[in-house]
């Protein structure tokens, strides 16, 4: 499978990344190199092997349903580029 | 052409846990904005989510109550999309290995039982809330409250087995009843703890191929689910009749205008690029645990309805109404276990009790008249101490004062007069005062007797035993 520049631009849009023509060209090449490498793994016969859901041999790690103190609000908002009235302030959202 | 409607529902329900799904923040509704947040639910770098065990238990309870198979192996996945209500830029959800699959629930439509398949039940986290300053169109920014981010949700997806807006409403009501019975969610649509999206398409009657569907969002009440779908059936029928084709898109129900409107769709809208969540450990559930949870389930609505019909001879309709709410059914069982007549109890609950609850905007649990108090009232009626008519007054006073029936009846001298001599004295006075009615009755006018009985009841302030008054009056005329 070859990644085209269109694919790169599509994924960039999904990730809300802006990139110029030179950059998307460069990433197309890099992503193809990565996929070529993964292609090697695709040659391994995996018949009868369950897909790995997690690399650690663990299961059912859970916590009891108990509340713990949350962050003080000023701390929660400390890194927000903009805030107003205890809210995070973000640019207008366009539907679609 | 005649079309068949095909509907599938996706329901999101917030689980009644104390803490969020992956962190210890409180799930309390209505807290000050951004006060129930922490590094985990704000999606700060380097944090590690840990699954709330209660969420898994509730999900399995729900799966079992909906007759699903519980997955022996289940995991979480990341659903990637960008929206300001999602601080991590992905929603932790379940993709290919949900906790429960292949279930069903039964609904009653036009007196017949219909089975609706449940495709899957999966666990996920809720998103935050956007607050728009001024109107959406005019404001150039939005405000975000992340308190709801990370509140545990179940998504319950039905098979496209629903054939009308009415069935959709019945399905949703039944689902809500079940979720309330098993005590996993408050299911308050007005607070957003139960939300519903619908997929709807039409196809020529008799065809088995699915037509192009639209997804309807913003169905925020049982009424709007039905109305929104009814509108969409009309809209799609019109498009097809005019030779057009349905565009696969998401539409939003506009309650005020009574129409659905297209949310401009883009082709990549559903490109979520799911992948397994590496920060969470898989969930393995063995048969022993499933069995233990199965045994902890209460009697479910269908079984309870059947029991009320079988053991107490209630009609299907009455049993349905009583068991539609677990609290009402519990009230019924409690009153009956105190010796109340089952049919009388059902009548009081569906009549005066429901009327008073609605008028006061209270839930059954909040009613000032408890099962023991209602049982006390019914006992006075069946002993003949008070008439059914007086009982209504007593009930209202019980409601207002919180006193029991016996106290009210004694305090206000409402005890029914069953002493023949006392009633005859009143009857004789009434006969003497109303010669015309007496003459009418003797001339064959039956309704004149009703008037005379009414006069006797009036003279005794409703306390005369009505059957006795009737009988004695006939004898004395
Ligand atoms: Zn948190």
Question: What order do the helices and strands come in, and which of them pair?
Answer:
The complex is a heterodimer of chains A (96) and B (477).
Chain A (H helix, E strand, L loop, with lengths): L4 H10 L6 H22 L19 E2 L9 H4 L6 E2 L2 E5 L5
Antiparallel strand pairs in A: 2-3
Chain B lengths: L2 E12 L36 E2 H13 L3 E2 L2 E2 L2 E4 L9 E4 L6 E10 L2 E14 L3 E4 L8 E5 L6 E7 L6 H17 L12 E11 L9 E6 L2 H20 L8 E5 L4 E5 L11 E2 L6 E2 L2 H10 L4 H12 L3 H8 L2 H12 L4 H19 L10 H12 L5 H14 L3 H7 L8 H14 L1 H8 L4 H13 L6 H11 L1
Parallel strand pairs in B: 13-14
Antiparallel strand pairs in B: 1-11, 1-12, 3-7, 4-17, 5-6, 5-16, 7-8, 8-11, 9-10, 12-13, 14-15
Helix pairs in contact in B: 2-3, 5-6, 6-8, 7-8, 7-9, 9-10, 12-14, 12-15, 13-14, 14-15
Bound molecules: zinc ion (ZN).
Zinc ion (ZN) binds next to loops of chain B.
Defining key terms:
heterodimer, A: 96 residues, alpha+beta, Histone, subunit A, two-stranded antiparallel sheet, 3 strands, 38% helix, B: 477 residues, Arc Repressor Mutant, subunit A, 3 domains, 3-stranded antiparallel sheet, 15 helices, elongated, binds zinc ion
């Amino acid at each position: 499978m070859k990644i085209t520049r269109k694919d790169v631009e599509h994924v960039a849009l999904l990730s809300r990344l802006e990139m110029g023509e030179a950059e998307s060209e460069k990433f197309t090449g890099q992503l193809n190199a990565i996929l070529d490498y993964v292609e090697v793994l695709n040659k391994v016969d995996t018949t009868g092997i369950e897909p790995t859901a997690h690399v650690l041999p663990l299961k059912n790690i859970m916590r009891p349903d108990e509340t713990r103190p949350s962050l003080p609000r000023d701390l929660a908002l400390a890194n927000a580029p903009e805030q107003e009235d205890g809210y995070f302030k973000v640019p207008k959202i366009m539907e679609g | 052409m005649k079309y068949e409607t095909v509907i599938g529902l996706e329901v999101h329900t917030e689980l009644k846990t104390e803490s969020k799904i992956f962190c210890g923040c409180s799930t309390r509704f209505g807290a000050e904005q951004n006060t129930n947040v922490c590094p985990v639910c704000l999606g700060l770098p380097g944090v590690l989510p840990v699954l709330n065990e209660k969420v898994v238990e509730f999900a399995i309870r729900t799966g079992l109550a909906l007759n699903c198979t519980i997955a022996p192996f289940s995991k979480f996945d990341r659903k990637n999309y960008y929206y300001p209500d999602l601080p991590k830029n992905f929603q932790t959800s379940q993709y290919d290995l949900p906790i429960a699959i292949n279930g069903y629930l039964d609904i009653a439509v036009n007196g017949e039982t219909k089975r609706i398949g449940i495709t899957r039940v999966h666990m996920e986290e809720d998103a935050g809330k956007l607050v728009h300053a001024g109107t959406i169109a005019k404001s150039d920014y939005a405000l975000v409250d992340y308190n709801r981010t990370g509140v545990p949700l179940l998504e319950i997806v039905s098979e496209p087995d629903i054939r009308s807006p009415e069935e959709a409403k019945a399905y949703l009501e039944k689902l809500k009843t079940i979720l309330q019975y098993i005590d996993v969610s408050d299911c308050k649509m007005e607070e957003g703890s139960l939300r519903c999206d619908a997929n709807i398409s039409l196809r020529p009657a008799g065809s088995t191929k699915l037509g192009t569907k639209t997804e309807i969002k913003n169905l925020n009440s049982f009424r709007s689910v039905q109305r929104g779908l009814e509108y969409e059936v009309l809209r799609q029928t019109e498009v097809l009749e005019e030779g057009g084709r349905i565009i696969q898109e998401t539409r939003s129900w506009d309650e005020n205008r009574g129409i659905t409107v297209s949310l401009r769709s883009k082709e990549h809208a559903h490109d979520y690029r799911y992948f397994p969540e590496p920060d969470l450990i898989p969930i393995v559930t063995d048969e022993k645990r499933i069995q233990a949870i199965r045994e902890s389930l209460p009697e479910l609505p269908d079984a309870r309805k059947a029991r009320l019909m079988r053991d107490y001879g209630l009609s299907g309709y009455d049993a349905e109404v009583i068991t539609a709410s677990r609290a009402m059914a519990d009230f019924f069982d409690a009153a009956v276990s105190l010796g109340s007549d089952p049919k009388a109890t059902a009548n009081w609950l569906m009549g005066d009790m429901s009327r008073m609850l609605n008028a006061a905007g209270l839930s059954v649990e909040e009613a000032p008249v408890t099962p023991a108090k209602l049982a006390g009232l019914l006992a006075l009626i069946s002993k003949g101490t008070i008439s059914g008519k007086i009982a209504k007054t007593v009930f209202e006073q019980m409601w207002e004062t919180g006193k029991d029936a016996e106290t009210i009846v004694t305090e206000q001298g409402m005890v029914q007069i069953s002493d023949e001599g006392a009633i005859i004295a009143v009857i004789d006075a009434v006969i003497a005062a109303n010669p015309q009615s007496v003459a009418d009755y003797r001339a064959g006018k039956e309704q004149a007797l009703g008037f005379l009985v009414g006069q006797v009841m009036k003279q005794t302030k409703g306390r005369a035993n009505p059957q006795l008054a009737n009988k004695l009056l006939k004898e004395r005329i």
